[in-house]
């Protein structure tokens, strides 16, 4: 599909200035940190003499000015090189590439679940604004939206892993189980139930509210009166007209929500000891690995931009008024 | 609409109680909440001296909870306030000046939105080191963008109104018009974001201190949850109790916010 490809390309080029701002901002923010990668290395590996330290600084390019280093970083980045992770002693790119898929899986399942269950419950609440069902769901979603995801995760662990022993306490799959194919997929799925629930529940509340509030607004629109006058059944009006119009803001939300989800995955992955991208961010900070942290920040920006792009594509499919032009 | 008024009242009452607890924390729970005060791992309601029990080291849970209220509210209010001030200033300048300045400021806003707020806070704390002022800064870093967008949209719609033209003919300087005439009128919708900003700030602070990046010299609910997690099997209440405090606080803020945005809608 050439039209699709050119749309993608155009949007990515349009996103370049934003990405550049992210790059400049994060680079110089992290530059302001006291102590550099060599200091962090010494802190971990013990004493070194001054000559060795100076040599290491030269080797890692840390003796140059920040501006020179930024230039070097950008030119390496143009070749897809994010630098060297001091904590993992491997290229940042390979560390991130190893960790990202798990998090993308976790995020996409959670987002999907939160969106579908949330908007479905939102339709149920918004079908009759002010009814008992609406009050219960609205209040419930407000309470759920106040719950920190990581704490919900701990509570779920206490209930389902410690007390009931139904589900594993953490990890992404059983260690050295030797499982392959579908057995391994099943194993991963079982491990994902609790982390996905704790991430999804909070955002489910958000979609519920969004859908319900928008539907309540649409009911006041005169066109609904027109539909009623035409003798359409209530069910048809709810689903085909009111809910269908109300879903659009929820879809717009999906893209930006990916940023919040990515942030949420940092804590949730730590709670469930999932070796993902989110936990990598926390590890980079804890181990003072600046190149890795910079790579994580850039990659999350790219992820959020791509998520928004996909959402815009879906939006175009659903709302004929905004079909991609050429 | 009566039920929404009731919700807001419950929210305000809850938040007032929390503020009072924060203000009078040293009177309610005297002494250092981080000091060991009794036998370790006492269950809640088992001892009169330690109503909510003690943690792994014998620190009083109730004292931690009470003093944690201070940290939570302090960080949340100030970072939300900073976010709103910065956001509405950026939005006002952007919307009022238009043109190139607007494009640049909106690109910067977009860049800040593209990086997850929590990661931004994490990165900032890793640079500045954790203390209350740096946490306030770090959390507001990712929290101002929405205020900027909402204020900008509002300013754009106000810019062409008659009272602005009047101010111009009176000879007011552009910046004076922007901040003294337009911003106060555009502030309503921005202020209704305040509740969401406060709630977000509370949750980010809790998550940061849960991961061990909070102020180490203060008790926080997040750090209490993290502490309790090490003995999750034996004493789940140690993690659960501070979490309930978090939920109640965030809920009270949401209840007030919902009330605020309803009255806003009725006025407009």
General description of the model:
The complex is a heterodimer of chains A (326) and B (268). Chain A is mainly alpha-helical and 326 residues long. Chain A is built from twelve helices and two strands, in the order H-H-H-H-E-E-H-H-H-H-H-H-H-H. Chain A has helices spanning 2-31, 37-45, 50-59, 66-77, 92-127, 132-145, 149-163, 181-219, 222-229, 234-271, 277-286, 290-318; strands spanning 84-85, 90-91. In chain A, strands 1-2 form a two-stranded antiparallel ribbon. The radius of gyration of chain A is 24 Å and the shape is globular. The two termini of chain A are 13 Å apart. The mean pLDDT of chain A is 84. Chain B is elongated and about 75 Å long. Chain B is built from twelve helices and no strands. Chain B has 268 residues and is mostly helical. In chain B, 48% of the residues are buried. Chain B has a single domain (2-267), classed as MetI-like (MetI-like fold). Chains A and B meet through helix 1, helix 6, helix 7, helix 10 and helix 11 of A and helix 4, helix 5, helix 10 and helix 12 of B.
């Amino acid at each position: 599909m050439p039209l699709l490809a050119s749309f993608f390309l155009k949007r990515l080029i349009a996103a370049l200035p934003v990405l550049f701002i992210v790059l400049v901002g994060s680079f110089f923010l992290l530059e302001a940190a006291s102590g550099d990668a060599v200091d962090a290395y010494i802190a971990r590996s013990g004493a070194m003499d001054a000559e060795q330290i100076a040599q290491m600084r030269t080797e890692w390019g840390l003796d140059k000015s920040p501006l020179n280093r930024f230039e070097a970083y950008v030119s390496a980045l143009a070749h897809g090189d994010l630098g060297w992770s001091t904590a993992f002693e491997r290229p940042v790119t390979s560390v991130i590439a190893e960790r990202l898929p798990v998090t993308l899986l976790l995020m996409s399942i959670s987002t999907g679940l939160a969106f579908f269950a949330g908007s479905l419950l939102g339709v149920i609440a918004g079908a009759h604004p002010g009814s008992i069902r609406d009050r219960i769901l609205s209040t419930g979603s407000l309470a759920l939206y106040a719950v920190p995801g990581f704490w919900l995760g701990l509570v779920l662990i206490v209930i389902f892993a410690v007390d009931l022993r139904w589900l594993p306490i953490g990890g992404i799959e059983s260690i050295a189980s030797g499982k392959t194919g579908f057995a391994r997929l099943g194993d991963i799925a079982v491990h994902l139930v609790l982390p996905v629930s704790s991430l999804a529940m909070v955002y489910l509340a958000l979609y519920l509210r969004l859908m319900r509030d928008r539907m309540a607004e649409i009911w006041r629109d005169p066109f609904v009166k027109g539909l009623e006058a035409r003798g359409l059944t209530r069910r048809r009006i709810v689903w085909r007209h009111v809910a269908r119009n109300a879903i659009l803001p929820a879809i717009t939300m999906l893209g930006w929500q990916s940023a919040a989800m990515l942030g949420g995955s940092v804590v949730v992955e730590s709670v469930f000891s999932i070796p993902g991208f989110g936990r990598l961010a926390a590890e980079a900070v804890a181990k003072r690995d600046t190149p890795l942290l910079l790579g994580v920040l850039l990659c999350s920006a790219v992820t959020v931009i791509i998520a928004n792009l996909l959402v815009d594509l879906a939006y175009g499919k659903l709302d004929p008024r905004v079909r991609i032009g050429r | 609409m009566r039920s929404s008024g009731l919700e807001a009242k419950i929210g305000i009452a809850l938040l007032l109680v929390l503020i009072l607890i924060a203000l009078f924390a040293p009177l309610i729970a005297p002494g250092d909440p981080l000091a060991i005060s009794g036998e370790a791992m006492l269950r809640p309601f088992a001892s009169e001296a330690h109503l909510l029990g003690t943690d792994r080291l014998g620190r009083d849970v109730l004292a931690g909870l009470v003093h944690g209220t201070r940290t939570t509210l302090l960080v949340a209010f100030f970072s939300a306030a900073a976010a709103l001030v910065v956001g509405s200033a950026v939005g006002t300048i952007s919307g009022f000046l238009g043109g190139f300045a607007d494009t640049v400021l909106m690109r910067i806003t977009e860049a800040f939105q593209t990086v997850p707020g929590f990661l931004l806070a994490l990165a900032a704390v890793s640079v500045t080191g954790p203390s209350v002022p740096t946490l306030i800064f770090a959390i507001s870093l990712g929290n101002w963008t929405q205020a900027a967008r909402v204020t900008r949209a509002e300013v754009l719609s106000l810019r062409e109104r008659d009272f602005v033209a009047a101010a111009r003919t009176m000879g007011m300087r552009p910046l004076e018009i922007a901040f003294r005439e337009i911003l106060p009128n555009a502030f309503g919708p921005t202020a209704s974001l305040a509740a969401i900003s406060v709630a977000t700030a509370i949750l980010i602070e809790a998550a940061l201190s849960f991961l061990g990046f909070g102020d180490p010299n203060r008790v926080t609910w997040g750090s209490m949850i993290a502490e309790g997690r090490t003995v999750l099997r034996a004493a789940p209440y140690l993690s659960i109790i501070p979490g309930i405090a978090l939920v109640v606080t965030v809920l009270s803020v949401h209840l007030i916010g919902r009330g605020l945005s309803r009255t806003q809608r009725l006025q407009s």
